[in-house]
Write a structure and sequence with these properties.
Layout: H1 12-41, H2 46-65, H3 68-82, H4 86-109, H5 111-122, H6 126-139, H7 143-158, H8 162-186, H9 190-212, H10 214-217, H11 225-228, H12 231-262, H13 267-303, H14 307-343, H15 347-355, H16 357-379, H17 383-408, H18 410-437
Helix pairs in contact: 1-2, 1-8, 1-13, 2-6, 3-4, 3-7, 3-12, 3-13, 4-7, 6-9, 7-9, 8-9, 12-17, 12-18, 13-14, 13-15, 13-16, 14-16, 16-18, 17-18
């Protein structure tokens, strides 16, 4: 059982054992969008493609905000595991599920004004808006499952069961792709068929995730309602999740403003930035595995009050992260031009993107500390520091963009983005000694 490893030595094999399934899981994510676009593109008109793209972007962005549920659950659960408090770890699964399902139901109930506001802002054609509304009206039915899976994913990562996370991802994406092809190409259900395929896939993935937690449901802790609804524990979970939510919203504000600001620099520059952002996405996918390893291992060490083990967890996962970003930087330097050519056939966009490729070579190196410290601080549930340092990073980004873009254009925009990464890494690094010292503090009552 993975829990038994919580008190064992932190080794390279253990770090990679957690990280590898996460990296493989991330690799499957883009396939769904590619298949959905390809399938709906067989209808022969532009409006359905735009509608699915718009509806999917809206719902995926909203669900992404609830990523705090995964991160908060990892930290709290891994600490409970480290403290050998199995009942609290199981109660956390129940709390995460209740939050996820309740949030999903709220989105279903509020879909009318929500969809209306989004479509008003998007200003698409009447046909695209109508089809997008049809798509979202069907797909929103799986919101409780899509958000609830975040909580289960965090719980599984805390137990170092990332192969289970990979299984859920592969199953969900596989069902989605197969049913999209069947419903659209075989049954001619159009946009609603793509949405229905996602609904079935997400609910079936949720069911599989619950099945993977069956050992917890065989124990009494998950239904120990006085513990599950304990006011102090609920307030602690609410505080952690709120801090992560605010941090996530500020991070999203940086990336959204980055794209919006790029619109003022011309269509070619905007397109080049979109191409180059795929380099950052690839970097994030690669580093997620080691950041998730840090979440589980640091949380477990802190829960067990083992300072030396916490230090080794932070150091070893960060070493793997550093090795990864060096490889990525070299790959981007050597093959970045070829990657750009694969992502676009527009010669003007290719040329523009190559002009900013140096920023992509620097990005993994400059962003490594931010990504890895995020994992370390999530595992330690030092979320207030994460929120506060993200506030500083956002301020640095805004100031840098306002000063540098008028001077050096798009280079200034990229400089501002990377400065926000560096700021997060440096400021969280300055807070790390206090985090490590926290392992010496007496544990909270279980």
């Amino acid at each position: 059982m993975a829990d038994a490893a919580a008190s064992g030595p932190i080794t390279n094999r253990r770090v990679v054992g957690i990280a590898a399934p996460i990296v493989l899981s991330n690799a499957t994510v883009p396939l769904v969008g590619i298949v959905d676009t390809g399938v709906i593109g067989q209808l022969g008109t532009a409006a359905p493609i735009g509608a699915v793209g718009l509806g999917s972007l809206v719902l995926t962005s909203v669900y992404w905000i609830f990523g705090f549920l995964r991160m908060g659950t990892v930290g709290l659960t891994s600490q409970a595991i480290g403290a050998a408090n199995e009942a609290e770890a199981d109660a956390l699964l129940s709390r995460a599920l209740m939050i996820g399902v309740a949030a999903g139901l709220a989105l279903i109930l509020l879909q009318g004004p929500f969809f209306g506001g989004v479509l008003w802002v998007s200003r698409g054609s009447a046909e695209v808006e109508a089809l997008a509304r049809d798509y979202m009206a069907v797909r929103i039915l799986s919101a409780p499952a899509a958000i609830g899976v975040f909580g289960i994913t965090g719980w599984l990562i805390a137990h170092e069961r990332t192969r289970g996370v990979l299984a859920v991802q592969i199953w969900t994406n596989g069902v989605n792709m197969a049913l999209s092809a069947l419903f659209v190409l075989g049954l001619d259900w159009g946009v609603e068929g793509v949405a229905l395929a996602t609904v079935i896939a997400e609910w079936s993935g949720f069911a599989l995730a619950l099945w993977l937690c069956r050992a917890a449901f065989a124990r009494p802790g998950w239904r120990d309602w006085p513990r599950v609804f304990d006011r102090v524990r609920l307030m602690r979970m609410a505080q952690v999740n709120t801090d992560i939510l605010l941090r996530t919203l500020m991070l999203e504000a940086i990336f959204v403003s980055f794209m919006f600001y790029g619109t003022s620099l011309g269509d070619v520059t905007l397109a080049a930035n979109q191409v180059l952002l795929q380099f950052l996405m690839f970097t994030a996918f690669a580093l997620d595995g080691f950041a998730f390893s840090a979440e589980a291992l640091v949380g477990s060490a802190l829960g067990a009050r083992r300072r030396a083990q916490l230090r080794r967890a932070a150091g070893l996962t960060s070493a793997w992260g550093a090795g990864t970003v060096v490889c990525l930087a070299l790959a981007f330097a050597l093959f970045g031009g070829a990657i750009i050519d694969l992502l676009t056939t527009a010669e003007d966009v290719r040329a523009a993107a190559r002009g900013y490729l140096a920023w992509m070579v620097a990005a993994p190196i400059l962003g490594c500390a931010a990504w890895m410290f995020d994992g370390i601080f999530i595992g330690a549930t030092r979320t207030r520091e994460m929120r506060n340092m993200m506030t500083v990073a956002l301020a640095v980004y805004v100031a840098a963009v306002l000063v540098l873009v008028p001077l050096i254009g798009n280079h200034g925009l990229w400089a501002g983005l990377l400065l926000s990464f560096v700021t997060r890494g440096v400021t969280l690094g300055l807070k790390y000694p206090a985090l490590e010292a926290g392992a010496d503090a007496p544990p909270e009552a279980g």
